[in-house]
UniProtKB/TrEMBL annotation:
<keyword id="KW-0547">Nucleotide-binding</keyword>
<dbReference type="InterPro" id="IPR050095">
    <property type="entry name" value="ECF_ABC_transporter_ATP-bd"/>
</dbReference>
<protein>
    <submittedName>
        <fullName>ATP-binding cassette domain-containing protein</fullName>
    </submittedName>
</protein>
<dbReference type="InterPro" id="IPR027417">
    <property type="entry name" value="P-loop_NTPase"/>
</dbReference>
<dbReference type="Pfam" id="PF00005">
    <property type="entry name" value="ABC_tran"/>
</dbReference>
<dbReference type="GO" id="GO:0043190">
    <property type="term" value="C:ATP-binding cassette (ABC) transporter complex"/>
</dbReference>
<dbReference type="GO" id="GO:0005524">
    <property type="term" value="F:ATP binding"/>
</dbReference>
<dbReference type="InterPro" id="IPR003593">
    <property type="entry name" value="AAA+_ATPase"/>
</dbReference>
<dbReference type="InterPro" id="IPR017871">
    <property type="entry name" value="ABC_transporter-like_CS"/>
</dbReference>
<feature type="domain" description="ABC transporter">
    <location>
        <begin position="2"/>
        <end position="223"/>
    </location>
</feature>
<keyword id="KW-0813">Transport</keyword>
<dbReference type="GO" id="GO:0042626">
    <property type="term" value="F:ATPase-coupled transmembrane transporter activity"/>
</dbReference>
<dbReference type="InterPro" id="IPR015856">
    <property type="entry name" value="ABC_transpr_CbiO/EcfA_su"/>
</dbReference>
<dbReference type="InterPro" id="IPR003439">
    <property type="entry name" value="ABC_transporter-like_ATP-bd"/>
</dbReference>
<comment type="similarity">
    <text>Belongs to the ABC transporter superfamily.</text>
</comment>
<keyword id="KW-0067">ATP-binding</keyword>
<dbReference type="GO" id="GO:0016887">
    <property type="term" value="F:ATP hydrolysis activity"/>
</dbReference>
Length: 224
């Protein structure tokens, strides 16, 4: 479970999030909001990439402020732009990067990398330069690099924004098939209609918190 307790966050004098309190227990949760609503900041608070300036964020009882490393083992994060997440030259090396950092045995690394590449349709690119792949392939590679670490929760920040229709579908299918709990920050309203819960942010506050059939129309109405 991820819990926000009276969370506020500011960049200098600029308040971005104000007094957020909620628990995320559902399998699929979407975060919606316009530009500047605070949703990307909220996403980074979920795994300790940021710590709140006020209040607390806990993941399965671990406080992101004091247990950041343990939290990041539990919560994987997929960035909107995969280029910031791909760090090694080849596809195989990049998927293995996090496993090596955790000092997983070589045989286990090989097994998990092969399984991840097969699962995400990337096996044929195994030895190819990662940064020469298409945008959709890079996004799948970034996802594979996170999921190979077997986190309990996965946060996706705008995972379909830069993708064409085919790769958008592939990413959506990947998220739907995940055994882990997922929190997805997105503008893609169609994607979230089968989610369990949707939170709508506006000016750093939650203005709607409901199933998609209720929250999505409320979000659209606020935009009109």
């Amino acid at each position: 479970m991820i819990e926000f307790c009276s969370v506020t966050h500011a960049y200098g004098d600029r308040a971005v999030l104000s007094d957020l309190s909620f628990r995320l227990t559902e399998r699929r949760v979407a975060i919606l909001g316009g530009n500047g609503s605070g949703k990307s900041t909220l996403a980074r608070l979920l795994n300790g990439l940021l710590v709140p300036t006020g209040g607390s964020v806990t993941v399965d009882g671990l406080d992101t402020r004091t247990d950041g490393r343990a939290v990041r083992r539990k919560v994987g994060f997929v960035f909107q732009n995969p280029d910031v997440q791909i760090v090694l030259p080849t596809v195989e090396e990049d998927v293995a990067f996090g496993l090596k950092a955790r000092k997983i045995p070589k045989e286990e690394i090989a097994r998990r990398v092969t399984a991840a590449l097969d699962r995400h349709g990337l096996a044929r690119y195994r030895h190819q330069p990662a940064h020469q792949m298409s945008g959709g392939e890079k996004q799948l590679l970034a996802i594979a690099g996170v999921l190979v670490l077997e986190p309990d929760h996965v946060v996706f920040d705008e995972p379909t924004t830069l993708l064409d229709l085919r790769n958008r579908r592939r990413v959506i299918e990947t998220i739907r098939a995940l055994p882990q709990k997922a929190v997805v920050v997105t503008h893609d309203l169609d994607m979230v209609m089968d989610f369990d819960r949707v939170l709508v942010l506006e000016d750093g506050r939650v203005v709607a918190d409901a199933p998609p059939a209720v929250a999505v129309p409320a979000y659209v109405e606020r935009l009109s």
